[in-house]
Amino acid sequence: MPHFLQRVKLKNYKSIAVCDVQLGPLTFLVGPNGSGKSNFLDALHFVRDALVGSLDNALNERGGLNEVRRRSSGHPTHFGIRLEFQLASGRVGYYAFNVGARPAGGYEVQREECALSGLGQGPYFHVEAGQVVKCSESAFPAITADRLALVSGSGLSAFRPVFDALVAMGFYNLNPKVIRELQKPQDGRLLKSAGDNIASVVGHLMRAAPQNKVLIEEYLNRVVPSVHGVERMPVGPMESLSFRQDTAGSTHPWRFLAMNMSDGTLRALGILIALFQGTDSQGPTLVGIEEPEIALHPAAAGALREALHHATEHTQVLVTSHSPELLDDVLIPTDALIAVVADSGVSKLAPIDSAAREMLRQRLYTAGELLRLDQLEPDADVLNELGNRQFELFGVAKV
Ligand SMILES: Nc1ncnc2c1ncn2[C@@H]1O[C@H](COP(=O)(O)OP(=O)(O)O)[C@@H](O)[C@H]1O
Ligand SMILES: [Mg+2]
Fold first, then answer.
1. Ligand 1 pocket, residue 31 CB under 6 Å
2. Containing H/E element for 380?
3. Which residues of 139-158 are buried (b: 16+ CB within 10 A; e: fewer)?
4. First to last CA, the chain
5. 342 CA to middle of ligand 2, Å?
6. Residue 170's Cα: distance from chain center in Å?
7. Most CB atoms closer than 10 Å: which of 131, 162, 235, 333?
8. Mutate to test the pocket of ligand 1, among 12, 13, 15 (most ligand atoms within 8 A of CB)
9. What percent of the chain has pLDDT over 90?
């Protein structure tokens, strides 16, 4: 299966002034704290939020337009996002928009484009400030400037697959506290961001994809060897997770509720479910995970890394990390690494520089060792080139 997002361009999104990166089936965004890794992931999450809910909601959840667009002395008035993708059908395309402040207050979608198989060759639309400028379809549903037109456009069969694929991206920042609490039974088809519906997801996997649940349990057991299984457990009108765990002096594993499990175990389970929740008929097109290594023993990193690779058979995986342990593997392809640094408050993202690539290619070091040595830097030539080139969010890619 082709991986979904092929290339991401951002303009003035939070700390990112410009970025233009290619993504593979598995990508590690690596860099120090505060460099902009989460901001990159959040830009993708923003697209999903704005399509599932509304643009207004997506902005408000992040504190409004002023928090989302980059703050700098130059006062950029708008931010933009361009995603180039390949659908499961093999069809390629792009979706791009920018959002800016209106002089009279508030904001608007200044321009929005979606095109499949290249502009003019497949379905496309081009919208400016609430008006359809060009469109391949005979009639486009009603749109307004304060909403993304793709939401209305998803009513047309031509654009529906793009909408569906973008809203099927999942973003995870798993919170053991949320996983530990009793949860309301709810829709368990897609794991929520912090793990809010994890018990329902385990119940759903049990029924819909028991083989995935077995896989999740096998990996969990390698990360936390004392844990042998996990089930959904009704608790009155609520539900929780029940873990089968070895206990000293007992020949049979005991059962423990999520409230008694460690942060590391709960986070690891959340990550594994995020990775392996998909079935052939449905599942995330992309799984973005914030710092999967948190609260895990360094020795668990190998199993975790294997799980990340394994999951790419069914979905695209994008993780942020500053863990040398997670990257301690000579088999991580150099193309899978995007280095992120903050330069006077402005994030720079690019493939790692050629010196680091060469060291990895010769297997003199692992990426983890280079990270420990502070040698994973974005390629200066790539950044210079990006700075010199006209930066276009719209139109068919020329490169
Ligand atoms: N609208 C904005 N304009 C400029 N910088 C921003 C904006 N929003 C957040 N930042 C900066 O982004 C940085 C945090 O980036 P983040 O992606 O969370 O880092 P990390 O690499 O640790 O995940 C902070 O330094 C913060 O000041
Ligand atoms: Mg972060």
1. yes
2. helix 380-388
3. ebeebebbbbbbbbbbebeb
4. 24
5. 12
6. 6
7. 162
8. 15
9. 85
CB 99 within 8 Å of CB 65? yes
**Whole-angstrom distance, CA of residue 270 vs CA of residue 201:** 10
User: Are 141 and 153 contacting, i.e. CB atoms less than 8 angstroms apart?
Assistant: yes
Ligand 1 atom closest to the Cα of residue 32 is: 21
Please tell me the residue having the least CA distance from ligand 1 atom 12: 15
Select from 338, 268, 353, 284 the least CA-distant residue to 48. 284
Closest CA to 93 of 70, 68, 71, 119: 119
DSSP-assigned letter for residue 378: B
Q: Does residue 333 register a pLDDT over 70? A: yes
- Residue 217 neighbours by CB under 8 Å, 6+ apart: 228, 229, 230
Q: What is the Å distance from ligand 1's center to 14 Cα? A: 6
User: Which atom in ligand 1 lies closest to the alpha carbon of residue 68?
Assistant: 1
294 Cα–ligand 2 center, Å:
11
Separation between Cα atoms, residue 308 and residue 291, nearest integer Å: 12
pLDDT given at position 399 = 45
Q: Does residue 33's CB lie within 6 angstroms of at least one atom of ligand 1? A: yes
Find, among 73, 76, 149, 71, the residue nearest to 109 by Cα.
Answer: 149
Q: Which two tokens stand for residue 275?
A: 């990775």
Structure token pair of residue 126: 């081009």
Total length of the chain: 399
CA dist 36 and 34 (Å) reads 6
Q: How far apart are CA 201 and CA 196, in angstroms?
A: 10
What is the gyration radius of the CA atoms in the chain, in angstroms?
22
With a 6 A CB cut-off, is 15 part of the ligand 1 pocket?
yes
Q: Rounded to 5 degrees, what are φ and ψ at 19? A: -150, 150
| Residue 379 CB neighbours (<10 A) | 18
Q: Indicate the domain borders of the chain.
A: 170-284
Ligand 1 atom with the smallest distance to the CA of 66 is: 1
- 3-state SS assignment for residue 34: coil
Residues with CB under 5 A from ligand 2 (ion): 38
pLDDT, tens digit, 9 for 90 and up, residues 180-234: 999 999 999 999 999 999 999 999 999 999 999 999 999 999 999 999 999 999 9
Of all ligands present, the nearest one to the C-alpha of 14 is: 1
CA distance 195 to 171: 10
**Ligand 1, atom 18: closest residue by C-alpha:** 38
